[in-house]
Amino acid sequence: MISTVTDDGTVLLNERTGRYWQLNNTGARVLQGLLDGREADGIAAALADRYGIALQQAERDVTAVIERLSGAKLVIP
């Protein structure tokens, strides 16, 4: 996987498939958290605090991003 930070988030290239993925800033924060070795619940708590949203919503959002990245084989949960 190759990644590049942009003004709007991060662009990923899956080198095996040649497929590009674009993550918004929130998705990029989730990915960075995973790469830093953080657990999903810690990432969700940080997002809830940063954006002033309910923890349950942040947990759903983090889970959705992880599922998409995992489905594309860009991360291993």
TrEMBL record:
Pfam families reported for this sequence: PqqD
Kindly provide the name given to this protein in its UniProt entry: Lasso peptide biosynthesis PqqD family chaperone
The lineage is: Bacteria, Bacillati, Actinomycetota, Actinomycetes, Kitasatosporales
